[in-house]
């Protein structure tokens, strides 16, 4: 059974940092691109970042470019999102999602349950 | 303001058919595959349609997708109260080098 499980969310002050993790199982992690998608309270889905299967290509939304870094460890079947200089508008549930392809773009066929990040003083 | 435009809400009676539109441009829908997602409150999105009109295993054929030019449409037939959810379209935007979602459409089954 394919599973992706996020962790690492929590309350952080504006300007702070946080690292999200996504543990993958049930599929060959190194063969698929992965993405982070977020959803602010009461709002729609917003794509954050994607990474190719090998990690050689990364993409970011303008809203997080230069502040967030996506990475992956194919030995540990884990996806990461390192978030710096956090702002109140980064408050959201962050979802980890598996793409159907090795590279972006592609549809996301499996999603985690999400982890809540709250940026507030 | 989303790059892809969806109606905020649609409604129909049980057993009826409903369509949800997703309008974009040549840099996104016009030249890339569209996927559709269903989301119930408090839960993760679920893939309904990929590559414009393909259904993942386990998705009933009541759900269908189509694309024409710079617009895409999700169709749901035989509506059930359990279909009440938010629906999002998504695609790659080649000009932005970014994945984009529509603003979402809330389906009400009256």
Account of the 3D structure:
The complex is a heterodimer of chains A (121) and B (110). Chain A is mainly beta and 121 residues long. Chain A is built from no helices and 11 strands. In chain A, strands 2, 4, 5, 6, 9, 10 and 11 form a 7-stranded mixed β-sheet that branches. Chain A has a 4-stranded antiparallel β-sheet with strand order 1-3-8-7, with no helix packed on it. Chain A is globular. Chain B is an all-beta fold and 110 residues long. Chain B is 0% helix and 45% strand. Chain B contains no helices and 9 strands. The N and C termini of chain B lie far apart (28 Å). The chains are: A mainly beta (121), B mainly beta (110). Chains A and B meet through strand 5 and strand 10 of A and strand 3, strand 7 and strand 8 of B.
Radius of gyration of chain A, taken over Cα atoms and rounded to an integer in Å: 13 Å
> How many H/I helices of chain B?
0
- How large is the share of residues in beta strands of chain A? over 45%
* Largest sheet entry of chain B: 6 strands, mixed
Helical coverage of chain A, percent range: under 10%
- Secondary-structure-based class of chain A equals mainly beta
**Subunit arrangement of the protein:** heterodimer
How large is the count of helical segments of chain A? 0
Secondary structure: number of strands of chain A = 11
Q: What's the end-to-end separation of chain B, in Å? A: 28 Å
The topology string of helices and strands of chain A comes to: EEEEEEEEEEE
Average pLDDT of chain A works out at 96
How would a crystallographer describe the biggest sheet of chain A? 7 strands, mixed
Question: What's this entry about, in short?
Answer:
The complex is a heterodimer of chains A (121) and B (110). Chain A is mainly beta.
Task: Compile the SSE list and pairings.
The complex is a heterodimer of chains A (about 120) and B (about 110).
Chain A (H helix, E strand, L loop, with lengths): L2 E5 L2 E3 L5 E8 L8 E6 L5 E7 L6 E3 L7 E6 L4 E6 L8 E8 L8 E4 L3 E5 L2
Parallel strand pairs in A: 2-11
Antiparallel strand pairs in A: 1-3, 3-8, 4-5, 4-9, 5-6, 7-8, 9-10, 9-11
Chain B lengths: L8 E4 L5 E6 L10 E6 L6 E4 L13 E6 L2 E6 L8 E9 L4 E4 L3 E5 L1
Parallel strand pairs in B: 1-9
Antiparallel strand pairs in B: 2-6, 3-4, 3-7, 5-6, 7-8, 7-9
